[in-house]
Specification:
alpha/beta, 10 helices
């Protein structure tokens, strides 16, 4: 069906301002501007890989909102479901890039953003029909932004489930938005509804108060005990990723070699590749367990390509990713995704 979307996302997209040439913010005389947000990054990755992706959000009617909208549309993401407002503001964040011994740092300026005031009735409810979409993908960032955003995300989940869509949820913890305890409570209802649950291993340990000594295998087992309905995928930084379907065996995937150019957005690219691996050419079960190994490999490939690309969004191609997927070069390497 021409109007059917493979993946629908919902979340906040901000503008990133970065001083060029590794300057500190207090030295800046100009800023490079990038568009970035976890859900829209994943949507761009999906569109670049060849799936139909739609991004839902709330944007302010000004040049900043138009910049976000035009950028995402330019990379093939459908934004026709965005709610536009004359009020509020577009969130910003400032990235100060640094090399050792000075690390990179981020300053957020996103309070009272347009997305933080999005309400459930701002959703295009008539869009959530069985024939209109396959999978809703959300992250733990959206419910952390504000109570209204959380209610809107949960309403989107209810509508998607009613329509028979699959549901993918990425924990994606943000310490500047809420505490681990708040994150656990705020994400629990989403995780319990997830068909596919994605979590960076360090986030899972933190949110669920697991000891630092808890192994990835033990963390995976814990999450599957908590959420037995979900196919669970853990990302492990330099160790790659692993996953297991309910009742199945653990599948492991190392990283692909990658030179560090742009670390931010690697996890979003991984989610795009993972979803692509499950969904492309698959018109039957959305998250078929037998495709887990392939999906992890596509996720690793997409993350590696993003890691070698500046900016927040995975400006990758299917051909590039397919070459990595078909190669035998995965293994211990400096590439990282989280």
């Amino acid at each position: 069906m021409a109007d059917r979307f493979d993946v629908v996302t919902l979340g906040e997209t901000m503008l990133r301002l970065t001083p060029p040439q590794m300057r500190r913010i207090e030295q800046a005389i100009s800023f490079d501007i990038e568009v970035g947000g976890s859900e829209s990054n994943t949507s761009v990755g999906l569109a670049r890989l060849g799936l139909k992706a739609r991004w839902l959000s709330r944007l302010t009617k000004n040049g900043l909102g138009y910049l976000i909208d035009n950028t995402l549309k330019g990379f093939g993401v459908d934004t026709s479901g965005v709610c536009w407002t004359d009020q509020d503001r577009i969130g910003l964040y400032f990235l100060e890039e640094g090399l050792a011994p000075r690390g990179s740092s981020v300053v957020y300026d996103r309070a009272n953003s347009a997305l933080s005031r999005m309400q459930p009735n701002d959703l295009p409810a008539d869009f959530f029909e069985p024939e209109m979409g396959r999978v809703l993908h959300l992250t733990g960032i959206t419910p952390a932004v504000s109570p209204l955003a959380a209610a809107t995300a949960f309403r989107a989940l209810e509508l998607a489930k009613k329509a028979g869509w699959g549901f993918s949820f990425d924990l994606n913890y943000r310490a500047r938005l809420w505490s681990p305890e708040q994150a656990r409570a705020g994400c629990d209802s989403f995780a319990r509804a997830a068909d596919l649950l994605i979590a960076p291993v360090r986030d899972a340990r933190l949110i669920y108060s697991l000891p630092a000594s808890t192994t990835p295998d033990e963390t995976l087992a814990f999450l599957q005990e908590q959420y037995p309905q979900a196919l669970v995928v853990l990302t492990l930084g330099k160790e790659g990723a692993m996953g297991r379907a309910p009742g199945g065996e653990i599948v492991r995937q190392p990283v692909f070699p990658a030179a560090e150019v742009g670390r931010i957005g690697g996890g979003d690219a991984f989610a795009a590749g993972l979803l692509y691996g499950f969904l492309y050419g698959n018109t039957a079960k959305r998250f078929a367990p037998e495709r887990l190994g392939l999906a992890l490999r596509w996720g690793a490939a997409a993350a590696s390509l993003k890691y070698s690309t500046p900016g927040d969004m995975p400006i990758i191609s299917r051909d590039e990713a397919a070459k990595l997927v078909a190669s035998d070069t995965s293994g211990a390497a400096p590439g990282v995704f989280r």
